[in-house]
Amino acid sequence: KNSVPPPWANMSIPWWRAQTTRYLVRRLHPWFWQRVQQYRREVTPQGHLPPHTISMHVRRSDKVACEDPSSPWCRSTEMNAVSFGSFMRKAEVLRERDPRL
Predict the structure, then answer these.
(1) Are residues 68 and 85 in the same domain?
(2) Are 58 and 27 contained in the same domain?
């Protein structure tokens, strides 16, 4: 019998890894979570990214098609994998258009 409740029974391994990591960081190691929050305040003292910052959401793992669809790591094929370098090239194009970035 499956012991995982239906809403979460079909979640991918990367999703479970993220949930476990979050649990460990927030529940078992509050000092670590506090350090992450401290670092966040140091990096973004205004509470947000400064003007002219390029911010990209790089989606990986759970939405990326895999080479081996039978792998437990491959549950979804919503998109093809895009290299991180291609994101950086797009950022450079934006910077060329607006040097303030």
Answers:
(1) yes
(2) no
Tell me the helix, strand and coil percentages in the chain, rounded to 5. 45, 0, 50
Residues composing the chain: 101
Hey, which residues does 64 pair with through a beta bridge?
79
Tell whether 64 and 89 lie within a shared domain: yes
Percent of the chain with pLDDT over 90: 12
Q: Please state the domain count of the chain.
A: 2
pTM beyond 0.70? no
- CB atoms under 10 Å from CB of 9, counted, come to 9
Residue 53 in tokens: 């910052």
